[in-house]
Amino acid sequence: MTNTEQPIKMEKLILHQLRMALKSPFSTSFGTFREKDFFIVEIDDGEGNQGFGESVAFSSPWYNEETVKTNEHIMKDFLIPLLFEHDIYHPDEVIQLFAPIRRNQMAKAAIEGAVWDLYAKQKELTLAEALGGKKTTIDVGISIGIQPTVEDLLEVIEKHAAEGYKRIKLKIKPGWDVDVIRQVRKPFPDISLMVDANSAYTLKDLDHLKQLDEFNLMMIEQPLAHDDIIQHAKLQKAIQTPICLDESIHSYDDARNAIELGSCKIINIKIGRVGGLTESKRIHDLCRANDIPVWCGGMLEAGVGRAHNIALTTLDHFVFPGDTAGSSRYWEEDIIHPEVVVKNGEIRVPDKPGIGYDINRSALGKYTVDQHVFYF
Ligand SMILES: O=C(O)CCC(=O)C1=CC=C[C@@H](O)[C@@H]1C(=O)O
Ligand SMILES: [Mg+2]
How many CB atoms lie within 10 A of CB 330? Predict the structure, then answer.
């Protein structure tokens, strides 16, 4: 940093708490969600620029230990005061500033994302350019939840394959796995197919999971415990299908350890899970150096989080389609304009500064259930 550089100007931070109804219910081991509560972080520099970030924490701690309420506490009582007390010259400094606060990656990522967006806008760069991404379009896939019947599942796959999504991701769990995938492969022998187990299995299921090797799957995502890399290394040695880690990878160090142990052959990078864009980029670079392909996972984001995912996916080693489907798959009306649109399985990367999408202020207002304003 040259001493003539000025710190990133920040005047006001607004925590917008939103509740948006999901177009289709999202079923997980914790139950079925029909709406999403989350925070949008807005940082205004007082000179006409606003940067936006989105927290991806759910309202219950089923995916990881964070929730909307823990996010509110950690952002208000620790992270925002830290940000106010220090000059930041580049967004890469934010994760270092937040290091004394243990974990709480999604809370950190929401604020760091707003700083990255504001910085890019102040520099008149797209967020993709600010991150070093070069792609002008990105390939995307779609994640399909567990359906009531196999017939329903086949219909949903047919619909989305016809829309041109470059990869289909199916959820599996004991009792809904090998037989279901066998029935899917009959009418769809050649589609790019992967499964996400969300930690539903243990090593005792090794022989059962080996049966998935017959289906030419791109990967099995997170078959074992959400915080494990040792058992995954044993499983990866025993099966052909590449294991992709999601929940197990909370940081660059987790990724380095998983690679060294051979716990996976692919990593799903989620900005919120790893603490922000800077850490996501570090993990991307580590995986590229070790020939471990990466892709960008989804957390049912609204448009701000979706825009951040698009910008990150422009980095060259994001070689597999991610879970960044279009806005209309999730929301009646998104909080950005234009909405994210997928055409033939591709998204055109916006060329406006920052996240590249405008905030739809009337939609933001419509979904806002609470708001907190902080002045630097
Ligand atoms: O955002 C999307 O469309 C993908 C959502 C999705 O597949 C997931 C979100 C959160 C937890 C999981 O259920 C799953 C995942 O692990 O990737
Ligand atoms: Mg996953």
Answer: 22
Phi, then psi, of 176 in degrees rounded to 5:
-140, 70
Active site residue 270: yes
Sign of the torsion formed by the C-alpha atoms of 365, 367, 371 and 373: negative
Query: Which residue bears the tokens 């009418």?
Result: 187
pLDDT at 267: 98
Let me know if residue 254 belongs to a domain.
yes
Please give the annotated binding residues for Mg(2+), written as ranges.
Answer: 196, 221, 246
Catalytic residue among 9, 171, 186, 343: 171
| Contact between 252 and 241 (Cβ < 8 Å) | no
H-helix or E-strand spanning residue 25: strand 12-28
Q: In 10 A of CB 363, how many CB atoms? A: 21
User: What is the domain-level CATH number for residue 85?
Assistant: 3.30.390.10
Reported as a single tens digit per residue, the pLDDT across 26-82 is 876 667 889 999 999 999 999 999 999 999 999 999 999 999 999 999 999 999 999
Predicted ipTM?
0.97
Provide residues with CB under 6 Å of ligand 1: 28, 63, 143, 196, 198, 246, 297-300, 323, 325
Which residues make beta-bridge pairs with 176? 173
Environment of ion ligand 2 (residues, CB < 5 A)? 196, 221, 246
222 Cα–ligand 2 center, Å? 6
Regarding whether 142 and 91 lie in a shared domain, the answer is: no
Q: Which ligand is nearest to the CA of 223?
A: 2
Query: Residue 5: pLDDT band by 50, 70, 90 thresholds?
Result: confident
Q: Which domain holds residue 60?
A: 12-124+360-375
What is the value of pTM for the model shown? 0.97
Q: Is residue 3 part of a domain?
A: no
Domain count within the chain: 2
Question: From the candidates 173, 270, 281, 343, which is the catalytic residue?
Answer: 270
pLDDT in tens, 322-339: 999 999 999 999 999 999
Rounded to the nearest angstrom, the distance between the alpha carbon of 196 and the centre of ligand 2 is 6
Active site residue 12: no
Task: Indicate if 99 and 73 belong to the same structural domain.
Answer: yes
